[in-house]
Design brief:
Chain lengths: ~450, ~290
């Protein structure tokens, strides 16, 4: 039997180990910034600095190239390059978590505002931006949505939006219908529409998350009736199954499904099919956000969608405008070598001329901009939603309650609609999922 | 003399190191993490023993995805093999244009599973889909269904897509196996007066045992590991009616319960290992004794 000499064996092993470390090294170097240290940057931004920026597809360059254009303008002005990486929406959270966990945190990354940011460990990864000059120009919702544990941790250029029952005013007028304020009035309205062969409420039921959105909107009314509810839910002192409003809502929701208010095959309806159903007057109402009517009008110019109005979901006694925490925000990585350059980038984006340029390119987020410098352009549905909400406003559960997941909740609701779960069991299933995370994070 | 032709075991060191670092270490780490509470909300990873595994098997709502996964693997494995064998037997004969037909039946295999899922979403649409449209056109409108909207049908509709897609792959393996059957065996059987079925059972099938083994093994493994077709077609819905284990793992990771998701992955791995080894043992026995 031939044997390798010790020197040869050593050489073979060394080469193999070097190859492996080379492979591993390649992966960790990918997103390393090329800038110098903090001291150098504090004096003046260096020309060879590249800041890495990761965001979800639907959050960047939507309907325009505005994010890329502003990045380019920043580079021309400062010499600092912006390497913007766009990740598909459904993979974004996992990709970002992987980057953070593997020590490859980008200099800037985007996260949901409100409690949605918690899953990315703000204490560990988010820089404190409280002392930045632009914070003083935030509108209240933007400051609240980007504040975590008393510190402003996000740079937000978005719009607060909410979900409500968007209705075709022409169909309502034709059938002598007015805005329903209670569940009884709502069912009478829907009965009239159904009797006239119009789908009363179009539900994009194939999208599990959309079912979850319905229940999420019941948070503000439940909070109003039970002050401190969100705080109790977030500290695991109360369970969903214990909240009367949620069970009432689900019971009424099931009743609506059983009575056929959502049409013939709501479980098969995709998100995109909603535009046609509403745009071609096949359906009279839809649970949408306030800028949804602009999208319908864009696709069906003759629909008159720009005149449609909204009212809060009149179920379980709800009369509150429920809204988000402002969508999403850019976060600076706390330990980034390029933190000063990132702050300079945020300063650049926050300049009134750049904010104006940004919002002009994004009609979908013009109803309520994050900065006082930019005038709000509310839609007809946004205005009417506020008018039809005597109970005031509140943050929905997606943005206000820890560990809320629209898709998971929506799947339980789909199950309920198809007879697999009772309303109480839906709430117990949500509680069970949350219990896992509370138990995992218990100190 | 023979021993001198063997290379030293030390030659495997580079390959083993790569295998160890890039495969074994991540897998062993996976085993470890399945025993922890690893999650998205905290960087503290606590050892919790078998708690994740106990929860998997005590949570009654999990029985559905376990049942779905097993049914999917069993039904699709058998039907893909039976249809694949039927196609192979048909296209092994002197059928005109058999080469074109072989290509056509194999074509679904090369289409991305995600695209297949999206195409069948349209085909199965209860209002606008061509399946219900076809049934109505031939007077069988009473059989129209909400193929992926009905919780009782969704998993079976998903199986139909998988069978449609992968039967061609089974066919190719069987066609290769059929080329190994000696022609003189059929001639001898003819002389003994055997009919088609006698020849199929007594001559063809015994020679196809290696092809059946490889097909069944690949079918069962791909059936248990199914993800993309169901993800694109039903996303496990409606509700959780067509959820399978890999989709549950994906969802658990999405929720941030990584330790629990990893435990499910370990269960799937053990399951696959046991079934694969079992299948090899079952199907190789007649092959060995036949010699």
């Amino acid at each position: 039997m031939h044997r390798l000499k010790p020197l040869k064996l050593f050489t073979v092993t060394l080469v193999a180990l070097l190859s492996i470390s080379g492979l591993i090294g390649c992966s960790t170097q990918k997103d390393q910034p090329t800038g110098g240290d903090n001291k150098e940057q504090a004096a003046a931004p260096k020309k060879d600095i590249t800041i890495t920026f990761v965001g979800s597809q639907n959050w960047l360059n939507k309907g325009s190239k505005i994010d890329s254009e502003l990045n380019e303008a920043f580079t021309q002005e400062t010499g600092i390059k912006v390497d913007m990486q766009v990740i598909p929406d459904d993979q974004y959270a996992n990709v970002l978590k992987t980057k953070l966990a593997s020590g490859e945190a980008p200099d800037i990354f985007m996260v949901s505002a409100g409690v949605g940011a918690q899953k990315f460990l703000p204490d560990k990864y988010f820089a404190d931006l409280s002392n930045e000059k632009w914070v003083s120009r935030y509108v209240p919702y933007a400051k609240a949505g980007s504040t975590i544990d008393g510190k402003v941790m996000g740079f937000m250029t978005w719009s607060v939006d909410g979900w409500g029952m968007l209705y075709n005013t022409k169909i309502f007028e034709k059938n002598n219908l007015t805005v329903p304020k209670t569940f009884d009035e709502f069912t009478k309205t829907l009965d009239t529409l159904k009797a006239n062969n119009i789908t009363p409420v179009y539900e994009v039921g194939k999208e599990a998350w959309h079912w979850g959105i319905w229940l999420s909107q019941m948070g503000p009314i439940a909070e109003k009736n039970n002050p401190g509810l969100y705080e109790k839910l977030n500290s695991n002192q109360i369970k969903y199954a214990d909240v009367k409003e949620f069970e009432t809502f689900l019971t009424q929701f099931k009743e609506m499904y059983d009575k056929g208010y959502f049409g013939k095959n709501p479980i098969s309806n995709t998100w995109d099919s909603g535009y046609e159903a509403m745009g071609k007057e096949q359906a009279a109402s839809f649970l949408g956000y306030t800028s949804y009517q602009n999208e319908v009008a864009g696709k069906f110019a003759d629909s008159g969608a720009n005149d449609w109005k909204m009212f809060p979901i009149p179920m379980a006694g709800n009369n509150v405008f429920s809204h988000s925490a402002g969508g999403n925000m850019r976060v600076a990585y706390k330990d980034s070598k390029n933190l000063d350059s990132v702050k300079a980038f945020f300063d650049f984006l926050a300049r009134p001329d750049n904010l104006k340029k940004y919002y002009e390119a994004r009609p979908d987020i013009q109803p309520a901009p994050s900065f006082t410098d930019v005038p709000a352009k509310p839609t007809a549905s946004g205005k009417s939603l506020l008018e039809n909400a005597p109970g005031g406003d509140g943050m929905d559960m997606e943005y206000g309650v820890l560990y809320w997941d629209n898709t998971t909740v929506g799947k339980y609701i789909q199950d309920m609609m198809l007879g697999g779960l009772t309303p109480k069991q839906v709430l117990e299933s949500i509680d069970k999922d949350r219990a896992k995370l509370f138990s995992a994070t218990a100190k | 003399m023979y021993a001198s032709k063997l290379y030293s075991w030390k030659f495997i060191v580079p390959a083993f190191l790569l295998f160890f670092v890039l495969f074994l270490v991540p897998n062993l780490m996976g085993f470890y993490y399945s025993l922890t509470n690893w999650n998205a909300m905290s960087d503290q990873v606590k050892f919790i023993g078998l708690d994740n595994f106990i929860e998997v098997f005590t949570d009654k709502s999990n029985f559905r995805f376990i049942y779905n996964t097993l049914m999917f693997a069993i039904v699709t494995s058998i039907l893909k093999a039976v249809i694949g064998l039927g196609l192979a037997l048909m296209l092994n004969e002197g059928v005109k244009s058999k080469n074109y037909l072989r290509t056509i039946f194999f074509m679904p295999v090369v289409i991305s599973n995600l695209i297949v899922g999206l195409i069948f979403q349209q085909i199965y649409n209860p209002d606008t889909g061509i399946l219900n449209g076809f049934l109505e056109a031939i007077g069988l409108g009473a059989f129209s269904q909400s193929w992926i909207g009905d919780p009782k049908l969704a998993i079976w509709s998903s199986m139909g897509v998988e069978i449609w897609k992968a039967s061609g792959f089974n066919m190719v393996i069987f066609l290769a196996g059929l080329q190994m059957v000696p022609k003189d065996m059929y001639e001898a059987a003819d002389m003994d007066g055997a009919n088609y079925w006698n020849k199929l059972i007594k001559v063809t099938i015994p020679f196809l045992i290696p092809s059946i083994t490889i097909n069944m093994m690949l079918n069962v493994i791909s059936g248990l590991k199914v993800f993309d077709v169901i993800f694109a077609l039903t996303n496990g819905g409606p509700g959780r009616a067509s959820e399978v284990i890999n989709l549950t793992i994906f969802n658990q990771f999405g929720l941030g319960t990584y330790g629990y998701g990893t435990a499910l992955g370990v269960i799937l791995f053990l399951f696959l290992a046991v079934i694969s080894i079992g299948l090899v043992k079952i199907f190789t026995r007649p092959e060995v004794s036949g010699r």
